[in-house]
Amino acid sequence: MARPTRWSVVALSALLTACSAASGDGSGSAALQAPSGYYRAAPPAEGKPRECEAPPPAYTGELDFPSKYEGSDKARDKLNPDAEKRYLKLTGDMRKLEMGVNRMVGRYFKYGRPQEVDCTMIWLSSWASAGALLSDQHNHTGMSVRKWTLGSLAGAYLKLKLSSSRPLAAHQEQSRQVEQWFGQLADKVVADWNAYPKERSNNHNYWAAWSVMATAVVLDRRDLFDWSVAQYRQGVDQVTAEGYLPRELVRQTRALSYHNYSIGPLLMVSAFAKANGLDLRGENDDAMLRLARKLEAGLHNPKIFQEKTGYEQAQVDLQQSSRFAWLEPYCALYSCSESTDAWRRSIEPLSTYRLGGDLTQLFSGPLP
Predict the structure, then answer these.
(1) HEC per residue, the chain
(2) In this predicted model, what pLDDT tens digit does every residue of 31-66 receive, in sequence order?
(3) What is the CATH number of domain 29-362?
């Protein structure tokens, strides 16, 4: 369960103020909301401002990148070192942007320095003004990079957008430009993954759903919210009675890793839906709970997944605590066992730039 003792009166007051100020989308419905932690205020400014580094150059070329599994069979579980090196080189500026924006937003909420917001908006607006990542020429890896980048950036930006400190008040023109770009990216992501065969739906669709959900709340767009929820439902409908995702079991040696990779965006979509009065926890007979419990059992005993797939499970992608940031929305949505809660506490704070930063901070308060 969420820990109400860690919820500050200041943050709760900020949330209530933000909710009461919601003016709706023009159709009589309330404005889209985020989980309560997104409304927190920044602390008073302290420390020496950092110099703003130049942003990475905006990527405006074709989204045609090699897969790190290039040459692998249909299991897609064998890394190709040369292809991975090319991928990392070609997409390096995107990751630099994602991680840089998340670091600056994180420092703003830690130290309260407005210069962090100033620099964040310089970085984001430089890519927005260039129309980055909007190419219609792409392969599967390219459209994956587009939705990963959008999810990272929109998730971090949303904290600035909703904070009761109103850090974007001094950046209205840049905000308009950035939000317009996010909308264009989200529309591309929707088109990309609508064209993807439904029978091949897997973790990529869940990450697309998260990127579109974060953007939906930034822009207060119900069409994007509804699309994200539909992708979520498509995902949880695949969860078996045992708690497995069939499209991730085919990854053979990486089945456990990809179950772990899949659950984070699904839980974030569920948490955002609940913040808007839509409780998705019961979908497909509590499928998400089955998935989480099976995953946790597998993480503590990988032989469960080895016996299911017939392959020993690779552990290389499960070495960092950031891989388990999903525990924060999970324990806010469900009643965690004592052992799960103890595990979560032992590795906090849990942060991942792909989901917008420090999830421990974001989910330290109660969900509506």
Answers:
(1) CCCHHHCCHHHHHHHHHHHHHCCCCCCCCCCCCCCHHHHCCCCCCCCCCCCCCCCCCCCCCCECCCCCCCCCCCCCCCCCHHHHHHHHHHCHHHHHHHHHHHHHHHHHHHHCCHHHHHHHHHHHHHHHHHCCCCCCCECHHHHHHHHHHHHHHHHHHHHHHHCCCCCCCCCHHHHHHHHHHHHHHHHHHHHHHHCCCHHHCCHHHHHHHHHHHHHHHHHCCHHHHHHHHHHHHHHHCCCCCCCCCHHHHCCHHHHHHHHHHHHHHHHHHHHHHHHCCCCCCCHHHHHHHHHHHHHHHHHHCCHHHHHHHCCCCCCHHHCCHHHHCCHHHHHHHCCCCHHHHHHHHHHCCCEEHHHCEEHHHHCCCCCC
(2) 999 999 999 999 999 999 999 999 999 999 999 999
(3) 1.50.10.100
Whether pLDDT at 156 is above 60: yes
Pick from 325, 319, 333, 331: nearest CA to 351: 325
- For residues 190 and 224, the answer to whether their CB atoms sit within 8 Å is yes
Rounded mean pLDDT, 229-237: 97
Residue 21 has pLDDT above 80, yes or no: no
Q: How many CB atoms lie within 10 A of CB 173?
A: 9
Delimit the domains of the chain by residue range. 29-362
* Contact between 275 and 363 (Cβ < 8 Å): no
Q: How far apart are the first and last CA of the chain?
A: 13
